[in-house]
Amino acid sequence: MDLLLDSFYAALLLVVSLNDEMMVIVGVTLKVSLSSTVIAALLGVPSGFIIAFADFPGKRMVITILNTLLALPTVIIGLFVYALISRRGLLGIFDLLYTQRAMIIGQVILVIPLVTALTLAAISRIDQRYRKTALTLGAGRVQTAWVVLREARFGIMAAVIAAFGRVISEVGISMMLGGNARGFTRTITTAMALEYDKGYFALAVALGMVLLALSFGMNLLFHFFQGRSRV
After folding, report:
1. Residues in Cβ contact with 185 at an 8 Å cutoff, skipping those fewer than 6 apart
2. Total domains present in the chain
């Protein structure tokens, strides 16, 4: 019990004082996570929209595969990307392994299915009369798509926020593809694992506090936008 209380007190001091090492780790985490989320949103939102409105053979199978990928373990993605970007891999010439770019690639693969599936769900909840009314009034395809996207905007925002919450808390991809290099690829979760192994619980607990605060903030935004999408 004393160890827990001492670690918590020391961690609180690190957070309040904005410890330099802690802030570097948080900065790397936010940079990688935000980059991954933005890229995944740019790819996943249009994909979800297309799947929702396009009629094509195998659509139900595509949706089934998409939902299956939501449960894809991070270590599998890490192994797949590692095989691609390692020295002997197909993309080995680009020297991506153990860089932030490698982490971003892995995290984008992780959350694209999430963004796509939640965007698909958000658009599917929109009343078909919006689309029919827009077409009846002479709106073109682009204008109709814009009307539907505006109606589903809160659900789409919730999808992006959920994706950010997913990548900021993952550890497998960051560890396997980033290498946990200090000041470069060390994220909150990988640093926590390292500090735990070293027996230095203060920094691990401090990072845990920051991660919980970020996750709590993201969940608040997620529930806010999810609630607005149902209005």
Report:
1. 28, 98, 99, 100, 103, 174, 178, 179
2. 1
